[in-house]
Design a protein that fits this description.
FAD/NAD(P)-binding domain; 2 domains; 11 helices; globular
Length: 356
């Protein structure tokens, strides 16, 4: 249990609860859920520019990272086609991957196919089912993709001023504005309460909020004096109590709850809001293809990690289809912006390619 690990090392409840957020992030789990300690480890492993366990902002926004990878690939001869949806993986008479078919009817032939889509989309939607072992299909169907995350992107006309550390008169960002700001994290009990509400189909009445202001470090993201605020919140069930859907009223009601909480820490925040974008779990699935809205393509629980990710005997990036590889968050070692799954899968694919 994460709570046991934190109790062993720390005494301060606010510190324990703040650290606990990285153990439940993206997971429909509480700090008291068995196995939650691993997710904390997953979020602090590695380093950034020599700083162990550190995280950073991407200059120009997260899309700039994708663009940098795209430019690097294009410089080495790769052809990139955006907005060209794949409808199926093409197979030869020997059952080997031979490329992909696009929704517009175009067929792209290839000796190898790498998919960073989720295991569910890759194997249940894009691959002919009769070519896959039944137990493999059943395993992919049974992957736990439950997600508690609602992401809210906010545009504000001034920097939030927190009661605990008020802004200076010139309104310039202070050190805490450049960090991840954790709200409603005074105790692990609060997080557990928020989780419990969601398990009964109700959005948390006092949700866990991770607030970042990337424009505090990267002014080009917003007009002068204005800022963009990113809110990573949970817990919100995919399906609300009574089977109610996430309609506009439900989404706005939850966002209002989140904003009321922020207002208590930073009076004037609500008045500064000039726009907001609310992405509930169903929105995340519809827009980004995340199964169940899960940011990791599947829960990072111990039964879905290491040799069992995405399925036992298929954790090495190869799939039951020769020439088809899984290289996204649903592969080992899981989600997060670190590129490990892609790098590992590329090495396996290159090894196989040399033998073709």
């Amino acid at each position: 249990l994460l709570s046991q690990i934190l109790d062993h090392w720390f005494e301060s409840e606010p510190l324990k609860a703040t650290l606990a957020t990285d153990a439940v992030i993206g997971a429909m789990a509480s700090p008291h859920t068995p196995g939650s300690g691993y997710v904390l480890l997953h979020h602090v492993m590695g380093e950034l520019e020599g700083h162990r366990g550190a995280w950073g902002y991407v200059a120009g926004g997260m899309g700039a990272l994708s663009q940098a990878i795209a430019r690097s690939a294009a410089a080495r001869g790769a052809h990139i086609f955006a907005e060209k949806a794949v409808c199926r993986v093409l197979l030869g008479g020997d059952g080997q991957a031979q490329g992909v078919a696009l929704q517009d009817g175009t067929e792209v032939k290839s000796k190898l196919v790498l998919s960073n889509a989720s295991p569910q989309i890759t194997f249940l939607e894009l691959t002919p089912q009769e070519q896959l072992p039944k137990d493999f299909v059943q395993r992919i169907q049974q992957v736990d993709t439950c997600s508690p995350v609602t992401k809210i992107n906010v545009a504000v006309d001034r920097l939030p001023s927190f009661l605990a550390a008020p802004n200076t008169h010139d309104g310039r960002p202070l050190p805490h504005h450049q960090c991840s700001i954790h709200l409603n994290c005074e105790s692990t009990h609060l997080l557990h309460q928020a989780f419990t509400e969601a398990t009964h189909g109700h959005p948390s009445s006092r949700p866990m909020i991770e607030l970042c202001i990337p424009s505090a470090l990267d002014p080009g993201l917003a007009p002068e004096g204005c800022h963009v605020v990113s809110l990573f919140t949970q817990y919100t069930p995919s399906v609300l109590a009574g089977g109610q859907s996430w309609d506009e009223q439900a989404r706005n009601a939850y966002a209002d709850t989140v904003f009321d909480c922020i207002e208590a820490y930073a009076p004037g925040f609500k008045a500064s809001v000039i726009g907001r974008d609310i992405l509930t779990p169903p929105d995340m699935e519809r827009i980004f293809g995340l199964p169940g809205g899960n940011i990791f393509h599947g829960g990072m629980s111990l039964d879905q990690l290491y040799f069992a990710r995405p399925a036992p005997s298929y954790s090495g990036y190869r799939s039951p289809i020769p020439g088809l590889y899984l290289c996204g968050s649903g592969a080992h070692p899981g989600g997060g912006v670190m590129g490990a799954a892609g790098r590992n899968a590329a090495q396996v694919a290159l090894e196989d390619f040399r033998r073709l």
